Amino acid sequence: MLRDQVQATVAEAIQAAADAGELPAIIMPAVEIMRPNRPEHGDFSTNIALVLAAAVKKETGEKSNPRQIAQTIADRMPKNGMIGAVELAGPGFINLRLSQAWLQQQVRAIVDAGDNFAALDLGHGQRWQVEFVSANPTGPLHFGGARNAVLGDALSNVLEAAGYTVEREYYVNDAGTQMQLFVDTLYARYLQHFGHEAEIPEGGYKGDYMVEYANRLVAKVGDSLLKMDRAAALAAIRPEGRAIVLADLQDELALIGVRFDEWFSEQSLYDSGQVEDVLTMLRDKGEIAAKDGAQWFLASNYPKNDKDEVVIRSTGAPTYFASDIAYHYNKFIRRDFDKVINVWAVDHQGHVSRMHAVMASLGLDPERLVILLYNLVKLMRDGQEVKMSKRSGDFLTLREVVEEVGRDAVRFMLLTRGPESSIDFDLNLAVAQTNDNPVFYVQYGHARICSIIEKAEKEGLLPNDGITAVDDAVLSLLEHPAELDLVRKMLELEEQIEIAVDKLSPHNLTHYGMELARVFTMFYRDCHVVDAGNIELSRARLLLSLAARTALARVLGLLGVATPQSM
User: Fold this and answer.
1) Secondary structure of 102-155 in the HEC alphabet?
2) DSSP H or E segment with residue 86
3) How confident is the model at residue 391 (pLDDT cuts 50, 70, 90)?
4) Between the CA of residue 398 and those of 136, 313, 321, 392, what are the distances in Å?
5) Which of 56, 107, 145, 277 to pair with 416, CA 20 to 30 A apart?
6) Which residue has better confidence, 463 or 505?
């Protein structure tokens, strides 16, 4: 990373000064590199002189002048290559400016990097699993689940860009009460299709989509279920209904570019005996105890848990928590993920501490399991909230919203805020082709560059392949402040990716993308790019434009948003 290179350069200067006896002989503290709040203060800044002065006083009792220490370090800093200028500020801050020549050369490096621009190696190949969406397979995905989907998918993209090996997983809740209600409802709709009287079960699914599912079931099995008793018919319906819903979910999620490496069945944990195996192991360890006719996981033995949790009811039926325990045992012990991120809605926050208790009871570091909670989404049209409710059938599906506003608007706008913040998704804004629409603004920046390249080709400044034409560009001609500001902004992408990994949220990338598009617009306003009267300068600026297109495409790609050639 650029910041790390700057840090290493400052550390080398400190070491050189220490070796020359110009700094006190103490254990040197780590160098912290920051970006100044004001651009006129430089590209980077460090307070290491102040830290060193404090360290000297602590170790020797002697007072040192931080500004004098800063000057000593500055004198040892190289004035060529990456660092162009070193300036002192305040009581001992060191401000650093990247050299103009070095910035100019980064333009070609960005273009050459292409899709790998700003790739990092923070993860060193660690295997991380991101489990997201995981809605009950009982109907179409309503729009509320779209935030989970795009958050998990974009975060996976960012982690991969940072050097992690990521596996995306959907946990299919195909065991338990809700699945049984779905099967019972589907059977009722199946019977109704053939003119039989059948009531939707209490708590069942009343949406019209269940009628469509029944029609698809009839197309598959005909009237064969009418010849079975109820128990046999329900048993036959379960896998068929599950397959129908999962096929729809896969199609719906594909509409917004979301894919999974694994669709993991909850029922498989029971069928393979893993639930009973894990519960037996925890009983043997004294983590589960019988009480009031039920079996309880002793969560209260662990921090932030004030009550125990039922795993086997007094009826002998397991709870969802029982399969949750087995599922996470499977993730960490059977499949050996280094870290797991579960993307959950905020209404599941009460389950976080008990899952960390489960990790500890299994002998695992609770910090290896991250529960990423996201807040609610409100759909707004004409200033009014559009209500949705899966149970009543009165809801707007993900498919309907995508058909109305498009995949890119859904993804980008649901990523503009951190997971902890609620979002009002404005359907009117999402389709507006104005600069107020953030996704339109960033995509238009990419499309504008494509049109610039096309114009240069038509005017003979570039051959039809575009890129090779600027291999001989004289980058030293890029001296305008708007040109150099654009290079600086592109070079920030590494840090933005690191921030997204640190916060486990890619929302900062949407704002960075908007800012990058804005800085390119300023460059295009102030600098004449396609100028047949100055071919050398045009080619340098065309290469800079190609670099900006590369950076914008990289950001949009991480967010899972398309890079249009025209708009």
Assistant:
1) HHHHHHHHHHHHHHHCCCCCCCCCCEEEEECCCCCCCCCCECHHHHHHHHHHHH
2) strand 83-89
3) very low
4) 15, 36, 28, 16
5) 107
6) 505
Residues, the chain: 567
Q: Evaluate if residue 29 carries a pLDDT over 90.
A: no
Please give the Cα distance from 107 to 122 (Å, whole number): 24
Q: State pLDDT tens for residues 469-514.
A: 556 789 999 999 999 999 999 999 999 999 999 999 999 999 999 9
Higher pLDDT, 468 or 105: 105
Q: Are 451 and 457 in contact (CB under 8 A)?
A: no
Report CA-CA distances (Å) from 80 to 7, 76, 84, 182.
16, 12, 6, 69
Note the CATH number of domain 103-122+434-559: 1.10.730.10
Residue closest to 214 by CA, chosen among 228, 232, 196, 231 = 196
Q: Sorting pLDDT into bands at 50, 70 and 90, what band is 386?
A: confident
Structure tokens that stand for 546 in this block: 């190609």
Q: HSE, CB side, 13 Å, CA atoms: give it for residue 432.
A: 13
Asked whether the predicted pLDDT for residue 91 surpasses 70, the reply is yes
* Calpha distance 311→539 (Å, rounded): 68
pTM over 0.70: yes
Helices 320-329 and 274-284: crossing angle in degrees, nearest 10, is: 90
DSSP 8-state assignment for residue 425: E
SS (H, E, C) 278-327: HHHHHHHCCCEEEECCEEEECHHHCCCCCCCEEEECCCCCECHHHHHHHH
Q: How far is CA 170 from the centre of its chain?
A: 16
End-to-end CA distance of the chain: 34
Q: Answer yes or no: are the C-beta atoms of 344 and 376 closer than 8 Å.
A: no
Full DSSP string of 43-65 = SEEE-HHHHHHHHHHHHH-----
Q: On the CB side of 239, how many CA atoms lie within 13 Å of its CA?
A: 5
Yes or no: is domain 2-98 CATH 3.30.1360.70? yes
Dist. CA 207–CA 393, nearest whole Å:
4
Distance between CA 174 and CA 270 in Å, rounded? 11
Amino acid in position 262: E
Beta strand segments in 132-285, E: 165-172, 262-265
For 398-421, the pLDDT digits (tens) are: 999 999 999 999 999 999 999 999
Query: What secondary structure letter does DSSP report for 480?
Result: S
H or E element that contains 424: strand 423-426
- For the CA atoms of the chain, what is the radius of gyration? 29
Rounded distance, CA 490 to CA 170, Å?
A: 34
Please return the burial class of 97, using the count of CB atoms within 10 Å of its CB with bins 0-12, 13-18 and 19+: middle
Check whether 533 has a pLDDT greater than 50.
Answer: yes
Strand (E) or helix (H) holding 217 = helix 209-221
CB 493 within 8 A of CB 551: yes
Provide the β-strand partners of residue 46: 33, 94
